[in-house]
Design brief:
This protein is an alpha+beta fold and about 350 residues long. About 15% of the residues lie in helices and about 30% in strands. The protein has 2 domains: about 1-20 and about 340-350, no CATH class; about 25-335, 3-Layer(aba) Sandwich (Rossmann fold). Pfam families: ThuA (PF06283).
Length: about 350
């Protein structure tokens, strides 16, 4: 007898595949506060990150306001990105809130001198992997790719030469669980810098960029959290020209996306922190945030702006600080990324 039987065939993504797609746009707080030396590439970094937000499916909030570091405020973000910071940019209450954020599944990304701040905060050191010690004068150097499969380095050449500060660190990031992605050809530059102390070895090969899948900063995990937020750090990014380089932009943004796609936050349907709004509606807002500084190396406070597609920044420049910096951002409708299993009904003829 020939019968036609309808068989329900489920073409389902694996749990990992589902979780690696955001259910709502991940929100990231980009923190550029400084309490010491201030990079004049910070306005360029803000503009470049804003310009690339939509392409990489993230929403950025740019700020130098340490009052945002509370449990309530940080709980609305999936990740924090520290960019070119210096010295003690958070008070004790802010550091405690950041620790709670990490223990709640929050993601960390650090760029350039993000490793040169919060020297007295052990939890932050565990998140970034290792803290800055010194660098020789900026010069041409050749960075070498160790890992060619990780998203942050998949598009980086095996030998990548440009003008940069070659960072030395106060410890070995591998001791905090880091896997090194980039190193440097030690014959390609002159190391005539001086260490600030008698620190342990940073390990071999020389770490330049790395990731941490399960940072010690997340321990102990908060109740109800099944997995920690990931961490990614790169020491590159001193010059404006570096931030304008497409290879570098992809390096930073792909590292951030890898960290977010660990799927430990509300944007991915789990966790205690993040953007849990999966019914986002289109909106268009114009936000203006201004930041004023005084003197070389001064800190900027109270500046914040949200952007998910583009940002334009104008600022006076100088190696010690910015003057009258203003960031104008445009916030278009947010893109939603839905990860779900696909159920298909397939008609199959069987001879019984």
């Amino acid at each position: 007898m020939l019968r036609t039987i309808i068989i329900a065939s489920a073409t389902l993504m694996t749990t990992t595949e589902i979780m690696a797609q955001a259910q709502s746009t991940p929100k990231v707080l980009v923190y550029t506060a400084t309490a010491g030396y201030r990079h004049d590439s910070i306005p360029t970094a803000i503009q470049v990150l804003g310009d690339n937000a939509q392409q990489y499916g993230v929403e950025f909030t740019f700020s130098e306001d340490k009052s945002l570091f509370t449990n309530e405020s940080l709980s609305t973000f999936d990740g924090v990105m520290f960019v070119s910071n210096s010295d003690e940019v958070l008070d004790e209450s802010g550091q405690a809130a950041l620790q709670t954020f990490f223990q709640s599944g929050g993601v960390y990304t650090g760029v350039h001198s993000a490793s040169a701040c919060l020297f007295n905060d052990e939890n932050y050191q565990q998140a970034v992997g290792a803290l800055f010690d010194y660098h020789p004068p900026i010069q041409d150097a050749t960075f070498t790719r160790i890992n060619n499969t990780h998203p942050a380095t998949a598009n980086v050449p095996d030998r990548w030469s440009f003008q940069e500060e070659v960072y030395y660190f106060r410890s070995n990031p591998r001791d905090n669980g880091a896997v090194v992605l980039l190193s440097v050809d030690e014959t390609s530059y002159v190391n005539n810098g001086t260490s600030s102390g008698n620190y342990p070895s940073m390990g071999d090969p020389h770490p330049i960029a790395w990731y941490i899948d399960s940072p010690l900063s997340s321990q102990p995990l908060s109740q109800g959290i099944s997995k920690p937020g990931r961490s990614f750090y790169t020491s590159l990014g001193h010059l404006n020209s570096t931030w304008q380089d497409e290879t570098f932009i992809n390096h930073v943004m792909s590292g951030l996306k890898w960290a977010l796609d660990g799927a430990s936050t509300k944007a991915y349907g789990i966790g205690l922190v993040g953007n849990g709004n999966n019914n986002e509606t289109s909106s268009s807002n114009q936000t203006s945030a201004s930041a004023s500084t005084s003197g070389s190396g001064s800190n900027t406070s109270g500046a914040s702006a949200t952007v998910s597609a583009s940002a334009s920044t104008s600022s006076g420049t100088g190696t010690g600080g910015t003057s009258g910096a203003q960031t104008n951002t445009h916030l278009p409708g947010n893109a939603a990324f839905i990860g779900a299993g696909i159920l298909g009904l397939v008609g199959v003829s069987l001879l019984i």
